[in-house]
Each structure stands twice: as C-alpha cells, then as structure tokens.
Specification:
The protein is of the alpha+beta class and about 650 residues long. The chain is about 45% helix and about 15% strand. The chain has 27 helices and 17 strands. The strands form 3 sheets. The chain has a 6-stranded antiparallel β-sheet. A hairpin with a 4-residue loop joins strand 6 and strand 7 (about 135-140). Helix 13 packs across helix 20. The radius of gyration is 24 Å and the shape is globular. The mean pLDDT is about 90.
Length: about 650
Amino acid sequence: MCGIAGIIDLGPRAALAETARAMAESLRHRGPDDSGLFVDEAAGVALSHRRLSIIDLSPLGHQPMESADGRHVIVFNGEIYNYQLLRHELAGENFRGHSDTEILLAAVTRFGIEETLKRANGMFALALYDRKNRVLHLARDRLGQKPLYYGFAGNAFAFASELKAIRAIPSFAPDLDVAALASYMRHGYVPAPHAIYRGLFKLLPGTWLSIPLAGLAERRLPEARPYWSLEDKVKEGSAQPFDYSAEEAEDRLDALLRDAVRHCMVSDVPLGAFLSGGIDSSTVVALMQAQSSRPVRSFTIGFHEAGYDEAAFAGQVARHLGTDHTELYVDDAKARAVVPELPAMYDEPFADSSQIPTALVSGLARERVAVSLSGDGGDELFGGYNRYVWGRNTERLRALVPGPLRRLGAGAIESIPVGWFDALTRFLPARLRPPQPGDKLHKLASVLAAPSADEIYRRLVSLWPEPGKIVTGAREARTRLSAPETWPAVGFAGQMMFLDAAGYLPDDILTKLDRASMAVGLEARVPLLDHRVVEFAWRLPARFKLRGGQGKWLLRRVLRRYVPDALTDRPKMGFGVPIDSWLRGPLRDWAETLLSEDRLRREGFFDPAPIRRRLAEHLSGRRNWQHALWAVLMFQAWTERWLRG
C-alpha cells in the first residue's frame, strides 16, 4: 500500500522535481518506508511515490519503477493478489525481484494496459507513463478500494491518492464546488466522479483514462473507459441467475470466499484482521483461521456506551475460533480526541461518524501488524442493510395502503420524540432490542410518506433531503441517485443493493477504511470484494439474500460451518459512536461555535435557518439529528483546516 502522485507541468518547469517531491511528502503517512521520484524534464512529467513495503521488502520493489524495456514507468498503490499467476503467464521474462509491481509492468509490456487490468485481481490505483508515445494512463480497481483524484491544478495536470498532494502544487488555487457540497450534504460524502474542488475529479471504479500529453494544452480531458462494469455484471446476473440448490450455492460461495481470503493473506509482513463479531468480519476471520497454521491476530475496539459496543460479541467469536485476539475498550474522551484529527485525515468533507472507531481500530492493529483484513462489502453484496428489508416491505405496503393513510401513520410516528421509543424498548430482552430504535422508527416514518419507490431509497440515504435549498446558490451535482430511469431492472431491493455497491460502498465505506488505515500506515484488504465474489453474488436469486425478514441468508449459512449461530445471530449494529449524546454534552460548545448563526451567515455557504432549527431540536432531545448535524460540523471543521487554516 502506498501513496502516488504526479504532475504534468503546462507552464515553467523549473520546480518540477521539487513540486513532485512535495506532493509525495504530503502522503508520507501512506508510505512511511521509502520514497521515489521520476522526472522527464523534456515532457514536463514527474511521478512520485511513497512506499509501504508489503510484498518484496527489498530495494527491488522501489517505485517509480521502469519496465525492462524502459518504455513504461509506473507508480502503483495497492496489491495484485494474483500476481503469482500472472508471473506464470509471463514465462520467459527475466524478473529482478518478486514484487507485484514488476509483474504488472511486464504484463503491460506483453498484453497492453487494458488486457492487463482485466487479468489483474486486486485493489489498486496506478499511473503508467508511456515514454514512447507520451501518454499517461490512470486506472482504478473494479470496486474502488483505492482512491485516485485527477484534474487541472493551476499550471499543471495532476493526479494523487489524496487531495492534500494536489494542494502541494504552488499554482493550485482551491475553488470550492458548491454543487459537490450540495451532494455532500445529502450523502455525507462527495460522490464520484465529483470532488470538492472545481476542476478535480475522482476516477470511477473499474475505469482507466489515457491522456495524451499533446492535448493537455487545450485543458480538455478524454472520458474514462471501463474495463469492468458493475452495472453490466448486475444486468448479466439478473439475466442469467444461477440455478443452484441451497447446498450447491453454499458450497460454491464457501470455496470462492476461501480463495479470496487466501489471496489476501499473502504478505511479507505481519498480518491480522478487524473483528466486530458481526457476520462479515466473523466470516473473514473464520476463513483466515481455517487456512492458517497459527492463531490469526484479530482486533476489536470496545465502547462502554450501551448500544454501541460489539467487543463482547467479537471476543466470543475470537475464543471459538482460537485467534490471537486484542481488545481495547475506549472511553468517550479518547474517542472524542480523534475528532480534531478528522479534517486532516479526510481531506475532503466526510461525515460517516464510524470514521472515529475505524481510526481507533486501525491504530490498535498497527501496533502489531502492517496488514489487516476487513469484512466490508458483505452488506451491499448479500443484502445486509436493514433498508433492503424495509424498502421491500414498504414497497409492498404502498400497493395496499393509500397514500393519505400512509402519510397519516408517518405523521403519528414523527409526533413521538425519539427518546420515548428508546425508553419503551428497554423492556425488551437484550437479544431482541434493536440499537437506536427511535432513529429507525423516525426514518421508517419518512419512508412511509414517500410518494414513489425511488424516493424511498432517496429518503433512506439522505442526511438532508433537499440540500440545494440549504447550500447557498447551489444545484446538486448529478449522480445515479438523481436518474432513477437508469437504474437496472433488478427489483427494488436489488436496485438499492446496486446503488449502494456503486456509490455508498466506494465513496463512503471504502474511503473511510482507506483514510483511517493509511493515516497510521496500515494496509487494509477487503476479500469480500474480490471481483469473482461480486460477480457470483449478483447471479444469486434474491431468495438467497433476503429471507424471513433477514439479509445475508446464504452468507450466514457459510458462516454457520465455522461459527455457531448463537454467537452472531442478533440485530445488526452500526460501527458507530454516540454522536447524539456527545452533541448534547461534551461536544456541545464545539458544535454551537461551528454552527452559530453569525458564523454560518458570515461564511455564506449555508442558509442558517434549517441548520439552527435542527440543532435546537436535537439539543432539546425532541429529535435526533446527529447525522445531519455531523455533516455540517465536519464541513465546518474541514473549512477551518483546508480553506482557512
């Protein structure tokens, strides 16, 4: 895992090398072990690299790396899990070392870049400079596990793993994109291909972009091309679903997951796994332990706050599997101490509050390992989020209950304060008690009142339902969410899973994991997102995912082979922290300062009225607006660090 950056200077080139070095230095946290620089003064091209050594720790893995024939130069961030298979396919090549980067370069020389991308199984972002044709190629892995920003920055074209590297370019003048800000206010992240600054973009997952240097003077970029398409795989899977029995499907998924996990366990440095005790992480750790000759190192963060602690569940799974388990209970003060670090860690506005425990567990793991496997991706592939069940049931309800009655019921639910619902459910047994029931019922009320099926999903995922009215002078950036006519015809629950896998997964879940792990120099791998597993999941009939009011039906059956149901069968919990109570208590002064009416009005980004109204309702305890308020707070904190710092 590494940090990559590069620049094609369109103006004076006196400081080309110095600028590229500064870009790489801003990414030191992503690659603390080594740095490298390639400069082609005549072409105005510089590529820079920060290395976290994982495979081939010797100097033979140093980057930027040139191909054997000298034609191509690469900077690469990530891992190619099937690099040994590719090496076998490249019989006759004389390799100097055994890094996946060298094998990738040799594959490009023999097969070309597009065919190499199709053959590669891994997580990556890369830049490949063709010195002969003076073309720069950028590419990103199929599911978007590794980030890549690009665009025009002052007198240059630039790319980088993180925006802070592009900010290191002296001629770059950051100009906030208010359309991207409006989209951020809906989602809590800036959806790709947009970025928070005008002129910059995120490369979409599964695509590659070829940029001839000769055309850059006109400041126009060609469109990225897909080498793999999630949408195509969803359509193909729907058109040709597997005709498996439950037993056959279970056997096939078990074998696929075992192989994906085995690939992710290849490392020349110590390796472990995050373990929450939920279905996904327990499956990954179980399959690791089943293929390991020694106890797998597993890591869990615990909280003393009721409704947010999964450490006890993780401990039970760890003891059953026999892992070498590390558990750390964190008090509120230590968790809150992460908050001031977030704007630097996420140098684009980002408001998923589980960024806090993700940062904490990454720091814990880094004390003992350099690579950690994660269970992310299972919800989007196998129907794990509650909203899939809610959405399907609500869609059925819409056909039976007239709109006025649904809106009446929704109004009745919303008239009851969140805290009352929370208090009522305390009488239920702990095993049956859902986390944050008041929040969930109020969200359900919003869904019941939705006028259309696509609006149900939009309301389920929106922090602010009409962000264009909150962000001053903004029209929300166009995304898949605003174009329901383009959604694949795979049933409403299937559409929600597709939209989450195409947007929420790379732009929120994987961004959160990448920035939190890379901030401490930890490589995080996600075996459930092996593209073979993804393609298999989309060929499964819906009954293998959602059944009996529960998601992940087939994945649960696989896990049952290794871990008893009693250890994992419980209501789904989010990996979160009690932002709601923090905003009413220890973070109240901080929130009041950032959201003061005078400040909001003076800075001019937002209409203060709806924000101040929600803040007042939240502080009074009548409503829980923690997620909506956290989005504004994270943007305000981000502006202090990056626009005014």
